[in-house]
Automatic annotation (TrEMBL):
Enzyme Commission numbers on file: 2.3.1.267
Protein name: GNAT family N-acetyltransferase
Pfam families for the chain: Acetyltransf_3
Acyltransferase recorded as keyword: yes
GO molecular function: protein-N-terminal-alanine acetyltransferase activity
Key words of the record: Acyltransferase, Transferase
Domain N-acetyltransferase: 19-164
Chaperone as UniProt keyword: no
Organism: Actinomadura livida
Top-level taxon of the source organism: Bacteria
InterPro entries: Acyl_CoA_acyltransferase (IPR016181), GNAT_dom (IPR000182), N-acetyltransferase (IPR051531)
Transmembrane segments: none
Amino acid sequence: MRTERLVMRRWQDGDREPFAAMNADPEVMEHFPAPLTRAESDGLIASFETRFEEDGFGFWALETAGTGEFVGFTGLSAVRFQAPFVPAVEIGWRLARSAWGRGYASEAARRALRFAFEDGLDEVVSFTAVANTRSRAVMERIGMTRDPADDFDHPLVPDGHPLEHHVLYRTTTARHAG
């Protein structure tokens, strides 16, 4: 899949090194419990590829259309933990710091939403730690809305951890029609 400036594609072996560097960056991983090791990062790629095979969608690697530079990922994933809003499909993204501030996350997320709704989904959710204002801004830019009553404590984040409480945003096919 393409956007004006990005290619959204399946993962390649050449993505492993820049992906691991991105996941080891403390600023990129500020709103996650910890940066990832190389083995954890490689394991994520394997799980992303498994989701494509099982679900028909997943988190696509992002590269710039002009240079082919790996800049992160954006895509869709079935939520696999228990929460009041599950079953659901989430949209998510993570970009290398060098790609921040260029509108890539919003651009790729809009394309992923179009894919989701063309694929027959009625609703897509997104969630993040309360303090993650950059991701929350992307959610709002792509037309997602938040009801504070839907916010939740993420079951995969340790109890009492500063990142435990998450905000939930939603969008629907109807909101994106036309």
